Amino acid sequence: RIMVRVGVIRGGRMRAVDGTQVMRAEPISQTDLDREKQAAKEKESKAKAKEVRTEEDKKEDEGFGEEEGDKMDTTEKGEKEKEADGEEGEVDVKQKFTDDVDSEMKMVVNSSAWMEKRGWEAVRDVYKRACIVHCPKRAVIRMKWAAFEENVENAESAREILRELVAKYPMLLEARMQQIDLERRQKNHDGADKMYTKLMKQIPTKHEKYKNMKTWIAMKYARFQFKVCHDVDKALAALRTALKKERGNPRLYSQIIDMCYQRSPIDVNGVTAALELALMSKDLTNMEKLDFVRRKVEFMQEFGDVGRYRDAWDQLKAFRHLCSADLKIEAKRRKELEAE
């Protein structure tokens, strides 16, 4: 007889590669078997301890152990209060930090302590890092930097900043106008004149928006020549050049009339010619012409003769008849606005 000693084995069902199910068995050593028995005992003892704790909780719910429950409630309340205090402390810290930053920024902007060299250098360093490192494509920051340099009487640095900005964005109108205004404030009228002339040449006139932009710049240039440089003829020449390209803009006619009126002595012929030019324009509406007729009547009453004054009154009657429907609509709208 042959005796075969078989130890403890563990088996299980598994699926083969071809899809068939086979039984697999493997021997278990005595050490593994003892470890599994010990784990089972520990699991059983934990389950019993859990049952005991469950019974104690039930007793406490029925009235037993009230003092312990009160202690636990007090402990939980204390923990919640600590958490609340901690959250309030965090809020207070954040609020204090925000207040400190706000007060510091107010000092930077308003305090006279920053008039010292070190203070301005600190502000300049912030602008420099913003323009070079953090926001190199933001033109508005460079414009503010240039305004800051001009404010601290460092005009040369402001010129350089604006020069680089205009070289990068040649059609940025705000930067070009700031550059011109800088030269005007520095009493460099020749430089501002050259910049105005160069800007008007660079603006294209094919699109409508550029045409309006060019007219706006021409009016600013005319005011600069008239009020700053005291060159009325050059101012009127700029307006007349713009008027040839945009005859339907009533502001150009009005500005020519105002400049002729403000000359000393008053240029009666220039005012009359500008008024007649506006009334003969085919690009102005009858309502726009009516405003110029009213100005003509008032001007002729003060500076013209009786014949011209009566002719102006006849023109006013004629235009009122032409614009009667529009005048009624305008009066109705005025009443509605007054009622509101």
Can you describe what's shown?
The chain is mainly alpha-helical. 77% of the residues lie in helices and 4% in strands. The protein has 14 helices and two strands; from the N terminus they run E-E-H-H-H-H-H-H-H-H-H-H-H-H-H-H. The chain has helices at 30-62, 66-110, 117-134, 139-151, 155-168, 173-185, 189-202, 208-228, 232-245, 250-262, 268-280, 286-303, 306-322, 324-339, and strands at 9-15, 21-27. It has a two-stranded antiparallel sheet with strand order 1-2. It is elongated and about 135 Å long.
What is the C-alpha radius of gyration, as a whole number of Å? Answer: 45 Å
Largest pleated sheet: 2 strands, antiparallel
In what order do the strands lie side by side in the largest sheet?
1-2
Distance between the termini: 122 Å
The protein's oligomeric status is single chain
Number of helices: 14
What shape does the CA trace take?
A: elongated
Strand segment count: 2
H/E topology pattern: EEHHHHHHHHHHHHHH
> How much helicity do the residues have?
over 70%
Structural class per helix/strand content?
mainly alpha
| pLDDT averaged residue by residue | 78
How much of the sequence lies in strands comes to: under 5%
Low-confidence spans: 1-7, 61-72, 107-115
